[in-house]
Amino acid sequence: MANTARIKSSLKETNTDFEVRSLDTICLNESELYHPAWYNLKYFAVGIVFGIFLVKSEVISWFRIQEMFRFQSFYMYGVIGSAIVTGIISIQLIKKFKVKSIHGEAIDLHPKPFTKGQIFGGLIFGFGWALTGACPGPLFALVGSGALVIVVALSSAVAGTWVYGLLRDRLPH
Amino acid sequence: MLDWLRHPWPWYVSGPLIGLMVPMLLLLGNKSFGVSSSLRHICAICFPSKIPFFQYQWKKEAWNLFFVAGITGGAFLAAHFLPDPGPVHVNPKLVHELSQFGVINFNNLMPADLFNWNSLLTVRGIIMIVVGGFLVGFGTRYAGGCTSGHSIMGISNLQMSSVIATICFMIGGLIMTNFILPYILQL
What we know:
heterodimer; A: mainly alpha; 8 helices; B: mainly alpha
């Protein structure tokens, strides 16, 4: 227990600007429990499963994305739509039965506040999605599947995120 | 069974499986499904450059980096051990439209005619790979999430902002694909 307290205090938040942080879901999702670093391997395992799904569903294919944006195939709409339905049902069940995580923690679901960023950023991401045929998950999956030139697109995406961080205060939100 | 796994999975199989990532991450460790934040964590680790946006305890978010490392590994496994025996099945209309731009190779998930190392020496390749990647990284962070974080996780949690973001992803993609991309493909 003393150990947990020490870890918690050493992880004291440096960026206390809640308004800024609230624009990013991940940084809000803090587990109160302390786990050794190797516990993160379970997320590696989930990632492996997700990577296999991404390749076998072909949603990482530039052709599938083109078909979607040209309304030439129902496939992508079917995938995203049924994924959302599955997610909605899962979250409703978790809420209804107050399901806890395997570590006994109550599950936190944070609201995503609306900002103009969702409009401007959304459109910008849409442009990039249609060009590369990939959103961030598929960028990693494509590299893994052997399309090594996508390393360049992925590095460029990191650069894009960095430039956003640099310009953030000057952009409308 | 293995043969069935090799073929591309139908949408009503792959969609729900992808959707199950949401409860799986929540149950395993109270984590919200999302991928684009990993790009921010990479910035925070490698190039924080005193930018406030990258000053946070990224170690607490390390799970997300394990997750994307797993995605890369899983994709490697799927591509090597469950490869699709045939070329990608693409709508004949798209095949016809793309052939006008010299895109004739449908053997891989990514069009080899557009995405290869040599294409990085062309204006078309630079726009599609370098500029495209940049817009993905910039736009997802500006929007506060990507297809995973907003379209799947956010809408699953019934967030209006995620519905708006998803609509904007679609509008951006429709504009690019139908009105701008034809000119870029000609380059």
